[in-house]
Automatic annotation (TrEMBL):
It comes from the Bacteria. Binds 1 divalent metal cation per subunit. This is Ribulose-phosphate 3-epimerase. It catalyses: D-ribulose 5-phosphate = D-xylulose 5-phosphate.
Amino acid sequence: AVAVEIAPSILGADLGRLSDEVAVLEAAGADRLHLDVMDGRFVPNITLGPDVVASLRDRSRMPFEAHLMVEEPDHLLGRFVEAGCQRVVVHAEACRHLHRTLATVAELGAQAGVALNPATPASSIQHVLKLVDLVLVMTVNPGFGGQRHLASIVPKVGQVLDLADRAGQSVQVEVDGGIALDTVGPVVRAGARAVVVGSALYRHPGGVVAAIEEIREAARA
Ligand code: DX5
Ligand code: ZN
């Protein structure tokens, strides 16, 4: 069995009680907090910025990963690292100069991640694999939680891993979108070693603790 990291997305939480909700996720054994940052341009929704992240930082010991669903995010990279994010994930589709943007994240001392929307091929990141620690494969079109998992995109996990293998690089593949008890198994069997979970945590009748435990169990490859 392999260990799969569970990174809850706070998007489905009660954002009016954000720090309490983060504490619940931490107590439930989450491995990392997935912070969905939306700018209203790259995606048709707006969520939180670096100041909110900074205010959560001293209330949690979890590593923070910022998922920047932000058009041209260069000007915000330093803000999220300063706010306490150990990992910053940018979208390949949002960066005019993706190679330079990813190099900048690493220069800032954070782990660099690149996210791929469903329509974006694995081959699009062939020339930046050396710059990333993580590839975030989106199995929903970004912008909202609670959307249907696009199972047809899961093979991209293997395509990314093959590309990395051929390039002699090791990357972690994380899958984001519609992860639940019934979808996490195929995603892990495809090679993902981290999953983002949002709405499935909050709609579980047993609560967040039970949800994380059951998804972790279902994730054992
Ligand atoms: C969507 C976000 C995802 C989303 C996951 O734009 O990037 O992280 O919040 O939520 P679920 O698990 O409900 O699809
Ligand atoms: Zn996300």
